[in-house]
Design brief:
The structure holds two protein chains of two kinds. By secondary structure, chain A is mainly β. In chain A, the strands form eight sheets. Chain A has a four-stranded antiparallel β-sheet, with no helix packed on it. In chain A, strand 8 and strand 9 form a beta hairpin. Chain A is globular, with a radius of gyration of 20 Å. By secondary structure, chain B is of the alpha+beta class. Chain B has one domain: Beta-grasp domain (Ubiquitin-like (UB roll)). In chain B, strands 2-1-5-3-4 form a five-stranded mixed β-sheet, with helices on one face. In chain B, strand 3 and strand 4 form a beta hairpin. The chains are: A mainly beta, B alpha+beta. The interface between A and B is medium-sized, with 31 and 24 residues.
Chain lengths: 407, 98
């Protein structure tokens, strides 16, 4: 059993949630984002593909999905950054028996809008959307998507048949987007009652018909709250932007070494700025030329620039997976990514320069960032959430003192 | 005691910290035995079987020395005074990533 560490955090601190194939790590820094404390691993030994930090209604609640190849997949939460967490007696996210489906993995957790503070969305494998309106106590399968006639023709990509992206329209509570591999992008305009494929212009090189209505292997979609009709898409071959809510996608692979990749993140304050990490090809899934470079556009995809200061530029055969890139909401945005080889890099200056924050981790499959707000700072000594079906359990620890990130 | 369940320590932590559990009833088959086990210890159900009621892929259930995968699955008869072992399989551990 590893040594489990715990962090404490206060208002203004930055949190990183690093989901790996062997557990969740929680990192903390102050606003300077130069030194990081490391908490975890929580759910040690279990893949954590999804995490979210909920600060609505004064909460400081960490959510994550825990996959166990033995005991199934559960959703956990903690109100003290992981020190204690819920262990549900009965699993809350389950397919109804009549569907004949079983939950394989939780791929995405998305907090509801500010005016729906008890709503959570969850994208899972096999591709399905679950929704909770009571802050995670109970979940229901979105039947509009489940009953979609396309569903039986969605096929799994390399990671399984996963619904990995949930984007909420910040100005229209009835509209949201989901994306899956494979299947592509779907949009609802009626709060999830019905869904329509929104993939026009997106290539599917692996199908006989190269521009099908659906079936694309979309890897990630991002959007900015100030411009919800503008979306960016990293495809399995292809970089795209839509300016009309997904009705049409335009190729924006201008000046990138490859338009294949997995991850994508948007700047928190500038809807024209997007980050990606190109991968050489689907045959050779490593960074091109052995150079680890983040690419950034600051003009909505008309051009891209490499960001490499502080990143290895020789023999760096890395890959950043679809949820492995994130930005924080600081005034000068932080950008973070984790690699399949277990390294976490960060930039505290919007990508201009980078530092290795942490190495030696299991494969990173999820990176999320949050800036702690509100006055409810936490010392890490509290208890997890409790309810009839949720009991807090303390991760066993052999050391309780703080540790700095190792490089 | 008609039936004794032997469970791994992780599950025991969800069953009053006991890894040996006893059923007073006399179930006909494994399905009925597990149903009685869920009744006594509800948290064990979702961890041992999936939404469809099937034993999870990487868990083995033995009646005596026989794995039920080869003796009729959940319909496997349960003799009197038998031990039913719930054992994590040695399989698993490989994950898809991308």
């Amino acid at each position: 059993m590893p040594s489990i560490r715990h962090i404490s955090a206060k208002h203004g601190d930055v949190l990183l949630m690093i989901g790996t194939l062997k557990g969740l790590f929680v990192l903390r820094s102050n606003a300077a984002r130069k030194k990081w404390e490391v908490g975890g691993p929580y759910s040690y030994g279990s893949p954590v593909y999804a995490a979210a930090f909920d600060q609505r209604n004064g909460r400081h609640r960490l959510w994550w999905g825990q996959q166990s190849f033995r005991w199934g997949t559960i959703l956990r939460s903690s109100d003290n950054f992981g020190k204690t967490s819920t262990e549900p007696e009965t699993y809350s996210i389950k397919f109804p028996t009549e569907t004949g489906l079983t939950l394989k993995n939780i791929w995405q957790l998305r907090l509801g809008r500010a005016d729906e503070p008890d709503t959570l969305y969850c994208g899972v494998e096999p591709s399905s959307l679950f929704v909770s309106h009571d802050n995670g106590k109970s979940w229901s399968l979105n039947m509009g998507l489940h009953n979609h006639p396309h569903r039986l023709k969605w096929t799994p990509g390399g990671g399984g048949q996963c619904l990995h992206t949930i984007q909420l329209d910040a100005k229209d509570n009835k509209r949201m987007f989901i994306a899956m591999s494979t299947g592509g992008v779907y949009r609802t305009d009626d709060g999830g009652a019905s869904w329509n494929a929104r993939n026009k212009g997106v290539r599917a090189d692996f199908l006989p018909e190269k521009l099908p209505e659906f079936g694309q292997c979309v890897h990630k979609v991002v959007s900015h709250p100030s411009q919800p009709d503008r979306l960016y898409l990293q495809n399995h071959w292809g970089l795209y932007r839509s300016d009309d809510g997904g009705d049409w996608w335009h190729d924006i692979a201008n000046g990138v070494p490859s338009d294949f990749g997995f991850c994508m993140a948007i700047h928190p304050h500038d809807p024209d700025t997007v980050y990606i990490v190109p991968i050489e090809s689907d045959e050779y899934r490593c960074t091109p030329e052995g150079k680890l470079r983040v690419y950034r556009t600051r003009n909505a995809g008309r051009s891209w620039e490499p960001l490499s200061r502080g990143l290895p530029q020789k023999d760096a055969l890395e890959v950043v997976l679809r949820d492995g890139l994130a930005t924080d909401t600081c005034g000068k945005a932080g950008v973070y990514f984790g690699t399949r080889s277990g390294k976490v890099y960060g930039s505290n200056d919007e990508g201009r320069s980078w530092q290795l924050i942490l190495g030696g981790l299991p494969s990173v499959v999820c990176v999320k960032a949050a800036v702690l707000n509100g006055s409810a700072s936490h010392s890490g000594k509290g208890k997890g959430t409790t309810s009839n079906s949720h009991k807090p359990r303390k991760e066993k620890t052999s050391k309780s003192r703080k540790h700095s990130a190792r490089k | 005691m008609p039936v004794t369940f032997l469970i791994p320590s992780y599950l025991g932590s969800l069953a009053g910290n006991c890894t040996t559990l006893f059923l007073d009833s006399s179930p006909k088959n494994v399905h009925d035995a597990l149903a009685a086990l869920w009744h006594l210890h509800p948290p064990l159900r979702d961890r041992i079987v999936d939404e469809q009621g099937a034993v999870r892929q990487h868990i083995n259930v033995f009646v005596g020395d026989e794995c039920i995968r080869f003796t009729g699955g959940l319909d496997t008869p349960v003799p009197e005074n038998v031990e039913i072992s719930i054992v994590p399989a040695v399989s698993g551990g490989i994950y898809s990533l991308e």
